[in-house]
Amino acid sequence: MDPVERAPRRPADARFQLSGARLLEPLRGDDHPGDPGRIDLNRAIRAGRRRVRVRRLTTAAAAVAATLAVIIPTTVLANLPHPAPPAVQAPEPGFEVLSRAFTVGSAGGFTPDRYETGRLRQRITLRSADPARHVTGVITMYAAGRHPTLPTSQPAPPVAGRQAYWLPEGTSLAWEWAPDAWGTVTLSGVSERVLAHRVAQSVLPQPGPPVTVPFTVAQDALDGRYRVVGARSTYPGKTSQTSLLYDTQDPVDGEPVVEVGVRRPRPSADTTVGGVPAVVTGAEVVLLPPGREDAVFAKAQQERTMRALVQALQFNS
Amino acid sequence: MRPDEERDYVAYVTARLPVLRRLSYNLCRDEHRADDLVQTTITRLYIHWGRAKEAGDLHRYVDKMLVRAFLNDQRLGWWTRVRLTSRPKELPVAGTDLETKAVVQAALAQVPPRQRAVLVLRFLCDLPVVEVAELLGCSQGNVKSQTARGLTRLRELLGRDESRMDEEKVARHGSR
Fold first, then answer.
1. Does B78 touch chain A (CB under 8 A)?
2. ipTM of this predicted complex?
3. Mind listing the pLDDT tens digit for each residue in A197-214?
4. Within an 8 Å CB–CB cutoff, is residue A47 touching chain B?
5. Do B144 and A17 touch (CB under 8 A)?
6. Does residue B14 sit at the A interface (CB-CB below 8 Å)?
7. A189 to chain B, minimum CA–CA distance in Å?
8. pLDDT, position A132
9. Which residues of chain A lie closer than 8 angstroms to B26, CB-CB?
10. What is the pLDDT of residue A92?
11. In a designed cystine with A119, which of A94, A206, A224, B41 is the match (CB 3.0 to 4.6 A)?
12. B139 phi and psi, to 5 degrees?
């Protein structure tokens, strides 16, 4: 056909609009769940009130602890003519934010792949010990009193002498690793519950040194409300990754809002950010600084935040 | 929360519940999970009611909470996916092409969550790109690229299903 006679091309997004509407047409009109639903407004109000109370109490307790931590040592020092004994610090609830609180061994055909630290929750991702098998698992260890509601209808054999329960969904187990402190393990790709039990037995409470992060991130890259709530680091393997996690509060049941870090191997660049080769997708921005083995990456809700973060990261060495 | 604020909250949620349930169901295509997501959202809304009321557009603020709850649930939501009853997942709706609907629904469920959210918000909820971008907290360009990727993935999945259905038909009836 003569190019002059060819119909004008629609903009790409207009074509997607037509195509998407056509593809999803069969689902149209099926958007009304049957009534009545299971939503309970009174339950939401009760749960909301409870959480507001807990937050107020936590804030008040933290303020009292901080005040006492200042007043008590000051008073003791002022009244003692000789060197004072070490000041007693109010114990911080939960784990050390940047330290691994548990060691995890290889068990049930799984081996630890990645560790995420945090104050209220620490999480270990597992991979198969056999590279040919594609199975995965997640261990989540909650600080005392911070675990979600537990379904306790199916008792499991105790783990390290403490009570345990099978969870109803998938190959999952919950166990009490310390008084009122629970951990869970969920395995994907396997159905033998005994494997989840073996994995749970390999988790030992054993605080380690702080995670070493080979970079710093400029303070002004993020809104002042955000703070470091944890770190992710891989166990030795084919890939390596270390990152810092930021949020406005310590996560318990969700994902941290911002992650920034370094990893290898590097992907291939398809664009540039600030003149540096980069890969930009909806989920993350990856910067490939020349002369480095590591790629710098950032994940956040907004692309401009991710771009700012990768450029704010400085390697320590 | 003061009693008058609580009354406002109850009135707002009661009026908005059907819309939230529809949006939630469109996102996850599972009645039980849809209700769980709405329950989580209205609980969070209670906690942040003061801040939510100050938002320029309260509806959009709440929709955003729901979409985020959906995306978070997709990342690590197994804990909340406990089915409490053993009844069948979905009941068929009369008057529609059930096989096509089931195939499209199954394919959509396999599209990555963020791309799925974009497709649902644009093509089932009929929201413009600018509103989808605001709900997901990303740029309009990002919404468009997620749309393109999501549709490509959906087409791949539907193509695979169509071939599988053809093979099954041949196996059942023999080639003619």
1. yes
2. 0.72
3. 999 999 998 887 788 899
4. yes
5. no
6. yes
7. 15
8. 84
9. 27, 31
10. 53
11. A94
12. -80, 165
Residue A156 DSSP SS3:
strand
Taken in order of first residue, the domains within chain B and their CATH numbers are 1-77 (1.10.1740), 95-176 (1.10.10.10)
CA–CA distance from B116 to each of A251, A313, B48 (Å)? 25, 32, 27
Residue written as tokens 């989580």? B40
pLDDT tens for residues A128-162?
Answer: 888 888 889 999 999 988 877 777 788 999 998 89
* B68 within 8 A of A257, measured Cβ to Cβ: no
Whether A189 and chain B come into contact, CB under 8 Å, resolves to no
**Hey, is B77 helix, strand or coil?**
coil
Which of B48, B62, B65, B124 best tests the A interface by mutation, with the highest count of A CBs <10 A?
Answer: B124
**What SS3 class is residue B28?**
helix
pLDDT at B166 over 60: no
Below-70 pLDDT ranges, chain A: 1-18, 29-37, 60-92
Sheet strands (E) in chain A: 102-104, 110-116, 121-128, 136-142, 155-159, 162-167, 171-178, 181-188, 203-205, 215-217, 227-234, 240-247, 258-264, 271-273, 276-280, 285-287, 295-299, 313-315
CA distance B17 to A256: 28
Q: Are A298 and A305 in contact (CB under 8 A)?
A: yes
Query: Within the 47-66 window of chain B, which residues sit less than 8 Å (CB to CB) from chain A?
Result: 47
Tokens coding B160: 């695979």
Q: Which residues, 6+ apart, have CB-to-CB distance to B123 below 8 Å?
A: A17, A20, A21, A23, A24
**Closest by CA position to A55, among listed A252, A228, A229:** A252
